[in-house]
Specification:
It contains six helices and two strands. It has 231 residues and is mainly alpha-helical. It has a two-stranded antiparallel sheet.
């Protein structure tokens, strides 16, 4: 068959990158999904993370399939690989769009509405309170929107609000110094960072997938030309 060895092994190397990249996507997205409380994953952003897990698994599978198709010069495997890349490319576009939407003002308004339903914090389940107290300690903040009042009253404000760093914005609550900054700023900072990561992953692998589709089409055309020349 009149198949270019350069195109063949370029496609093989791209598929190897897809396979390794799939491992990276799957590992990162699974870690974020498992630790969604630490990453402040909202209900609006969770579908993008779940979709990224699926895309990572499919990228690994199709990367392996593409390697086999390139090495064995199989039209069937290469055609399946091309269609798989096209589907995954559209999925990655969806991830990028979901990540971008999560950064809009309207989406942030929805997040704020959901968080207001959690007030007062002192009436939430204990596991939620403990998780949020960890956020307060690590972020040097207190409450969601207006500070310690989000907990209910001064008697139920936890020790996680105690101002342990005098260089921070602190305020006096009876005989205590507590953090005066609400945690909303921290939460939206995390949301923006995660959205940027999702968009970056979608953009980077989208370029690789386009190149992979181009090389697979070139190799398919060369294989078909070689088959016709033998007839």
């Amino acid at each position: 068959m009149a198949v270019s060895k350069l195109v063949k092994y370029l496609l093989f190397n791209f598929n190897l990158l897809f396979f390794l990249g799939g491992i990276g996507i799957l590992s990162f997205s699974a870690y974020v999904r498992i630790n969604k409380a630490d990453f402040q994953i909202t209900a609006e952003l969770l579908p993008a993370v779940n979709l990224l897990i699926f895309v990572g698994a499919m990228t690994m599978a199709f990367g392996f399939l593409g390697c086999c198709g390139a090495l064995h010069e199989s039209c069937c495997l290469l055609a399946i690989f091309f269609m798989g890349l096209l589907v995954m490319f559209l999925m990655l576009l969806s991830v990028g769009v979901l990540g971008a939407i999560s950064r809009t003002a309207s989406s942030q308004g929805i997040v704020k509405k959901h968080m207001k339903d959690l007030l007062p914090l002192s009436e939430q389940p204990e596991d939620f309170q403990l998780a949020f107290q960890d956020v307060e300690r690590t972020s040097f903040c207190c409450g969601f929107f207006v500070g310690h009042l989000d907990w209910g009253n001064a008697t139920v404000v936890p020790d996680s609000c105690n101002c342990t760093d005098t260089s921070r914005n602190c305020t006096l609550l009876e005989a205590r110094e507590i953090f005066g900054t609400p945690c909303m700023t921290y939460i939206f900072t995390w949301l923006d960072r995660l959205s940027e990561t999702l968009i970056g992953i979608a953009f980077g692998f989208g370029i690789l997938m386009i190149l992979g589709m181009i090389f697979s089409l070139v190799l398919l055309c060369q294989i078909n030309s070689g088959l016709k020349s033998l007839i």
